[in-house]
Every structure is written in structure tokens, then in C-alpha cells.
Design brief:
about 15% strand, alpha/beta, two-stranded parallel ribbon, Ubiquitin-like (UB roll)
Length: about 170
């Protein structure tokens, strides 16, 4: 205890000019497993569609800005401009009057092509379940039948009944 008090007194009572902080070493975010950059594909009604490199944690609005901004005929209402982006994500900006990505001509949502934001508009599908649907099809390939949605954790027979008339593959 005496040794502790002596050491504490030494550090606390030193003149301010003698206090030094030494950084032993830091690990870059990439080495910690966190990417510092993401790559997204921006398509549709933007001035410069294509691959965009953005800092990790960027939002949909950042991707649009990096792609030169939306064209005058762009329909931004269906996009969540505050949505955080993920590496490898496709951002599609529809034109006014154009059906949102993932919506088939039948008016049903195609669960094999719809982005999570479109899936969330379905009854009983929130952000978590929409992400699970997207993750499932990315890992296992496209759904072959609407009934295959039951393979997604959180979708049972009753939820499938709610969705059956609103979705297609």
C-alpha cells in the first residue's frame, strides 16, 4: 500500500511539463476486423452511376452525392437516405413513375430481387426479418417457391399466409 501511495504521489506531484503520454501502439481498424472503406454500386437515375468507394459507416445520401447526385427525374421518395450502407450493396435510384426495384409487373414484391427496404414494406416484415431474407438468398441462392420463405428464421406458416398474395419468386 505504501508503495502504491508513493508511486501515485510521484506521478501526481510532478510538474506538468514532465507528464508524458506514450502511445505504445495502435491497431488500424482494418486489422481489428472493421473495414475502413466500403464499396457500393450506385445505379439508376444518378449523374454518374457505377462503383463508389466510401468510408465505412456511410449513408445512402453519401452514395448519391458521390455518384454526382440524383438526376432531375429521380424519385427519392422510396429511398431511405439515412440508411447505413454495407460493403457490396447495390443502391438503385428509380425514375418518377418507374416501379421500385424488386416490384414485379404483377405488383407483387419479388423476394429474390427486392432490397431489404422494399421487403420491409410487407406486412409483418421489419428490418431484422428483411435482412434475414436477403442474407438467406445471398447464402443459398434464389428462392425457388414462395413456400421456401419458411426456411428463413422468423417466418412460419402464419406469416407465410400473410405474405403469400403479396410476394413472388
Amino acid at each position: 500500500m505504501v508503495l502504491f501511495l508513493a508511486a501515485a504521489g510521484f506521478f501526481l506531484l510532478r510538474p506538468p511539463g514532465e507528464r508524458k503520454v506514450e502511445v505504445i501502439g495502435t491497431v488500424p481498424a482494418e486489422e481489428e476486423g472493421r473495414p475502413t472503406e466500403i464499396v457500393v454500386y450506385v445505379a439508376g437515375a444518378v449523374k454518374s452511376p457505377g462503383i463508389q468507394r466510401l468510408p465505412a459507416g456511410s449513408r445512402m445520401a453519401d452514395a448519391l452525392e458521390r455518384a454526382g447526385g440524383p438526376l432531375p427525374e429521380a424519385d427519392l421518395e422510396g429511398l431511405n437516405l439515412a440508411q447505413k450502407l454495407e460493403d457490396g450493396q447495390r443502391v438503385y435510384v428509380p425514375r418518377r413513375g418507374q416501379m421500385p426495384a424488386g416490384t414485379a409487373s404483377s405488383g407483387k414484391v419479388n423476394v429474390n430481387t427486392a432490397p431489404a427496404s422494399e421487403l420491409e414494406k410487407l406486412p409483418g416484415i421489419g428490418p431484422t426479418l428483411a435482412a434475414r431474407i436477403v442474407e438467406y438468398r445471398e447464402r443459398n441462392g434464389p428462392f425457388r417457391r414462395v413456400e421456401d420463405l419458411k426456411k428463413v428464421k422468423g417466418i412460419g406458416e402464419s406469416k407465410l399466409r400473410e405474405l403469400r398474395d403479396r410476394v413472388e419468386v
